[in-house]
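Standup notes
- DV: blocked on the single-chain target, sequence here:
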Amino acid sequence: MRRRVEDIVGKWTEEKLELLEKYLRAYATIMNKQKRTWLKAFHYIDAFAGSGRARAKDEERYILGSPLRALQCDPPFDCLWFIELSPKRVEWLQRLQLEFPNRCIKIRKGDCNQILRQEVIPQITRQSQQRGLVFLDPYGLQVEWETVVALAKARTFDVFVNFPLMAVTRVLKRDEPPKGWSKELLVKVFGNDKWVESLYRPSEQLPLFGKPPVIRDIVRAEWLARIYSDQIATLFPFVSKPVIMLNSKNAPLYALFLASHNKTAVKIVNDIFGRYERLREVGR
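- DV (later): unblocked, structure below
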């Protein structure tokens, strides 16, 4: 028997998945009621699906990943799309098709940007009376702005975003604004880099020759999360308040939020996030 290559995750990942699961149930309940009148089908699309299960970092136990939580959702999704770049994770996702032989499960190996734009979005259309919930949970800065634009233009998707704050701050040097590949990457992810200008100011240490050096201000997680969610708000009419996901040392890692064309969807997520933040504050 081949040994499984495991995804090992921290407590914050489990909390993120629990928040997702709460919205999955709420979304599926609402969509299932719509099937009584006009809706033909509703889909779950996991753009960075992983392997389906993961091991807790500090404990000998396994937690359900987003694919399994979506598969076990009640009411059930009509079809589930699992997109993954890693061949090993794809192999483990394919085993879910054996575990759930009666479910519509579509597994796609490759870049989620291409698969979403070329296959998923063209199929889940207003004309076909279908809807979808997309989970964007990248490992880094892989989600392209062009993909978010395409999802918004379709007007058939709720998008649950886990935005990588730490990955952005790694690109922002302390002593010079982004240029070259780093500037191109930020534009590819944010759609522009105008917001970067406000981060840098002239240093108080004057040089002997040439222009004064610049220094980067502290990048606060809430500010950066708001920058990206405000960008998303130019595409979607309703965007939830971001919740900052923290690691075991209380360092900000990601910003979790929902973008939707439905006001009620965002209200539900704001309520879910609000309860989570109150409980987290009590536990500190």
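- Follow-up: Confidence is low (pLDDT under 50) at residues 1-5.
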